[in-house]
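Weekly modeling sync, notes
Attendees: AB, CL, MP (scribe)

Item 1: holo prediction request
CL wants a bound-state model with pyridoxal-5'-phosphate before deciding which constructs to order. AB pointed out that an apo prediction alone won't tell us much about the pocket. Agreed to run with the ligand included and paste results into these notes for async review.

Input as submitted:
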Amino acid sequence: MTALEIGGEALPQERKVVTEIPGPKSRELESRRTAAVATGVGSSLPAYVVAAGGGILKDADGNQIIDLGSGIAVTTAGNSNPKVVKAATEQLEAFTHTCFMVNPYESYVEVAEALNRLTPGDHEKRTVLLNSGAEAVENAVKIARAHTGRDAVVVFDHAYHGRTNLTMAMTAKAHPYKAGFGPFAGEVYRAPMSYPFRDNDAAGTKVSGEDAAKRVITMIEKQIGSEHVAAIVIEPIQGEGGFIVPAEGFLPALVEFARENGIVFVADEVQAGFARTGKMFASEWEGIVPDLITTAKGIAGGLPLSAVTGRKEIMDSVGPGRLGGTYGGNPTACAAALGAIDAFENDGLLENATHIGEIITDRLVKLQAKFPEVGDVRGRGAMVAAEFVQRDSIEPNPELVKKIVDHCAKNGVLVLSTGTFGNVLRFLPPLTISDELLNEAFDIIEEALESALA
Ligand SMILES: *Cc1c(COP(=O)(O)O)cnc(C)c1O
């Protein structure tokens, strides 16, 4: 299906800049916000949205902005995808909440069935539903600890797992996520990541996936003791860390090590999951079968829902009443997830992700040939990034990224920066964006580079 057939009908699929961005109405709202909302919550582009769909965000001043962010990989199935809207609306009219821990309902069970079927591996699985990505990661760790009777959790450089106390401990970056918010949960150990663009050995050759995995295994054996490790938790493609795709062989070697040592291997697919990479889950790219998998973001077309799905014997090592939460698997979010999953499976979104990824990669590779500041182009499917460096070195260039983001915002293109060094542009458009909008956005990015480097 094309963009216009999936949710774009109501909103003309064109970029339109009719005021400054943010315009007067957005600025007025921003001043109310400043007086009412805690400063700790930031916004990348304070243009207040009134409608969205296809590949467009419409703001309060009537500007139409090309969306290359999907609300951080959430509206993958399109903003207000008709299937999501219909399912959620029908559910809202039937009942809004019972609490699954008080009175159950079918849609929760259906979402669990869908996740058990769609996640990698054909072993028997079970699922628990929660509200946020961080909550899913917390629960995966709880389950892994209960199952193994061990404490230690291994995470990686550049990792992002959330903003709760345990997930802050698991997240790598101090600013803005951790600094001043400790003390953090204990028994979290950070291992070196495979980061092909920056990962050279003493002789200057790229560290292979197998060697990068050996480095992790040595660290675990020497610094923790593998018999103390409950879980290895890793994003198969790191999101906030800068869309780092580990070298081939890294993930399979870690899965094998985990299996041999009774360690629960947890894939945090909160950002990379749900069709984003052109496969339903990023783990599929190297054929790995995680023991547990955490999902959220793209799962329910914009409604808050998350899940832990995994091997029955691990999931069921936790007895009745020991997992849950008041809103976990809220009926409206479950209905929305069933609508989104229907769209992922039946509306060609996986193919769209591959196609979008090809366009973005092609445009970025052309920019790289023209501007040596584009140090690395990487990603899978519609999860693509460019890492910016100083000319003739791999020193990070966050200043250039900021200039591009600002130029894009002024010209009606929303693009998100990311990465440990703040020097990565990440592209996560809704899978309902048209080729025309995508190419127009990249014309503006190209213009931004030309003006910044002129
Ligand atoms: C966003 C994210 C989280 C946290 O999800 P929230 O819903 O914001 O709590 C966890 N892991 C990864 C990989 C993420 O990208």
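Recorded for review: The chain is about 35% helix and 15% strand.
Action items: CL to compare against the apo run; MP to circulate these notes.
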